Amino acid sequence: MSLFGPVHHVGVTVADMDRAVAFWTSLLGTTSRNRNILQGPQLGTMTGYPGIHIESCWVDLPGGVALELLRYIDRHEAPYDPGTAHPGNVHVCLHVDDMDEAHAHAVACGATPVSERPIDVAAGPRAGTRLAYLRDPDGVTIELVQDGASTPAGRPRPAGAQRRPLPGGPRWPASAATNEAVILPDLLRARAAEEPGAVALRVGDAVALTYGEWDARSNAAAGGLVERGVRPGDRVALVFGNDGWADYAICYLAALKAGAVAVPIGSRFSGPELDAVLAHSGATQMVSSASELEAGHDTEDFQIPVDPADLAEILYTSGTTGLPKGVACSHLAIMAHDLPPDAAASTGQVSFLHSFPIGTQAGQETLRVPLRIGGRTAIALPSFDPHLLCSLVERHRVVRLQLVPAMAQLLVVSNAPHEHDVSSVRRIVLSSAPAAPALFTRLAGAFPRASVWNAYALTEAGPARTLMEWDPARPTAVGRPVGETEIRIVDEEGTVLPAGRTGEIWLRRRGTPTREYYNDPAATAEAFLGGWAHTGDVGHLDAEGFLHLTDRKKDIIISGGTNVSSVEVENALYEHPAVVDVAVVGLPHSVLGEDVAAAVVVRSPTTERELQDVVRARLAEHKVPHRIVLVDALPRNPSGKVLKAEVRTQLGAGAAAAAGFGAARDETESVVVSVWQAVLGVPNVGIHDDFFALGGHSLAAAQIVARLRDAFGVDVPVAAVFEAPTPAELARVVAG
Question: How far apart, in whole angstroms, are the C-alpha atoms of residue 223 and residue 643?
């Protein structure tokens, strides 16, 4: 008897062809055919590895579809990782008539269950459906689906709420994407049943929210949403400032319990930007108070039935250019998560503190931590203040800090860590933006008992991320993949690159539903392909699998045909003890194409020359910023990322304002000005004009020193033009 119905996904990568053929033919009761080895130069073009051949074998599946098994063979010892470079499709979905029989048969054939037992979908359009997840010997995910009596598509949703039996305590093995808790409200119900009085969330010292209160109040608020006319699938905008984390947490879970789609906005957007987000999402309600929704409603268990594959939330990215994009995420995608390797090591109640804005991916993940892991209390800062942060650490014996680098930089330059007892902190994790090596060293000094970690993730990639403890031997590394995360480095054509080669970083979490840009198929097609999120970041993998971040693709400066990493220059500037914040950008240059410039925030007096010397001592001359402007603050979006387009405008305007004409004051300045005019082809040069702003470059500098040698009989090094980039400064060098 055939146990399986139509298959939806074909093509998997295997490590051992004999083992894979034996498994799949045994599982499906079918035969294999057309086993051979594919060779030829076209494979090198396709895979990016000239030494690769492919062994292929076909297994017939029910419904007339075939499963292709692929084994990559290294003929020339080329360095490659089949699991990363050629993962193929990793999800085979099989429809079954009898779940118990099919599940037992798959296990007997050698499949490993991911969930302890099949999942019974209790409500929603797929009520009665049974799901099970297993892995074949090569790690391929097998989804078994036994459809319920109702038709999965098109069944009308009930208008009211249905009670659902409380699931058993959820378990989160590191590799599992699904268990007895099917959607996020299930996790809250389970936690509320297990430890109702435990504090799940604090907002500074003002508010404490227990699991029991969170569950009961979100039940009541869900009733309020339904009373307001919210129906399954409606978008609900949640607009709260960071002092409203507790109310937001209640309303977020209420939206999910009401079967709605949460649109967390926080207070990040206002005016036209907020109007654009509300219009794009099609939000039918805007909520900014939990108590207004709760009033007069029952706190007993409440859940409008949903399909786990339905849309659950839309996160609007506070982009550094243009209007925000809405990243759409299903209930299943939210539940997919890999815990850090040591997540179970901490015992007792553990407090962790963060200052992420509401509605960001980082903020959403910190909100979900107390639901995923028992014994955790999330402490949210209502606003970032180093002294408030350290006082909360001291009062609540905070064990972990989760910060963006800009906040961490402000923290270490303040005296706050030395004015409070911060000895309870054992780990500090930086995320959301690149962090300079100097910052890790300063954090270690301010928190001597803590290890400092680096993480890399982005909204579009969801749970896919890297993590590592800071290692000075790998200053540009941001970690190895966590759990089921996979990384690709690709060139402009999308060809996978080997270790050590730099290209665009692609991320995905194996077996997790892909996110997409809401109502934007063109942008989705450009940013997501085959489950991979195209990050727009540039980096490489080293031989040990660590990801190294070079820069944002659009922020790389091309000066004189040479790529300059803005991150590398920023890291060098952070080595100066006075630097608090810095942004490096490329400005237009008539000869070089772009020239390196920097906006810098300092905490004590310093000069442009001092900052340039710091970079010059560490990097090549073409990477030294030839224009540095000291500013009070850098423009940042609500997620803490620098708005480099505004920085470019700021630096350009600053240069124009400073470019007042200065006439030569003596004969030496007059000769230097004449030489500059002749070499650079600029008719009017003032003594304070910048060499690079006038279109200067290395060849012009060589011509200038040659003419000065003829005019004054002195040998002036070419580097002097770079180090004294105005006629007035260069005249002083000539005069000795």
Answer: 41
CA distance 71 to 74: 10
pLDDT tens per residue across span 104-138: 888 888 888 865 667 666 544 445 777 777 777 87
Dist CA 354 CA 401 (whole Å): 6
Q: In degrees rounded to 5, what are phi and psi of residue 536?
A: 80, 0
CB 168 within 8 Å of CB 180: yes
* CB 635, CB 627: distance < 8 Å: no
Residue 424 backbone phi and psi in degrees, to 5: -75, -20
Q: How far apart are the first and last CA of the chain?
A: 97
Regions of the chain short of the pLDDT cut 50: 1-2, 5-9, 39-51, 75-90, 123-126, 149-179, 656-659
Show the beta-strand stretches assigned E in 496-643: 503-509, 516-517, 528-529, 532-541, 547-552, 557-559, 562-564, 579-589, 593-602, 627-630
CATH number for the domain whose boundaries are 667-735: 1.10.1200.10
Which stretches does DSSP call E strand in 404-492? Answer: 427-430, 451-456, 466-469, 477-481, 485-490
DSSP single-letter state for residue 557: E
Q: Which two tokens stand for residue 133?
A: 């997840």
Q: How far is Cα of residue 575 from the mean position of the Cα atoms in its chain?
A: 26
The 32-38 sheet, strands edge to edge: 12-13, 66-74, 52-60, 32-38
Both structure tokens of 176: 């599992």
Q: Are 640 and 354 in contact (CB under 8 A)?
A: no
What confidence score (pLDDT) does residue 250 get?
97
- For the 4-146 domain, the top CATH level (class) is alpha beta
Query: Which structure tokens are listed for 178?
Result: 């699904």
**For residues 99 and 92, what is the distance between their CA atoms, to the nearest angstrom?**
16
**For the chain, domain boundaries:** 4-146, 556-658, 667-735
Looking up tokens 């709605």 gives 260
d(CA 608, CA 113): 62
Q: What is the pTM of this model?
A: 0.64
Closest CA to 696 of 589, 562, 552: 589
Instruction: List residues bridging with 67 in a β-sheet.
Output: 59
Tokens of 237: 């905008």
Helices (H) and strands (E) in the chain, counts: 23, 35
Q: Looking at the domain 556-658, which fold is it? A: GMP Synthetase; Chain A, domain 3 (3.30.300)
At residue 171, the pLDDT reads 27
In this structure, are residues 105 and 3 in contact, taking their beta carbons and an 8 Å threshold?
yes
| SS3 label, residue 260 | coil
* Beta-bridge mates of residue 95: 145
CB 152 within 8 A of CB 161: no
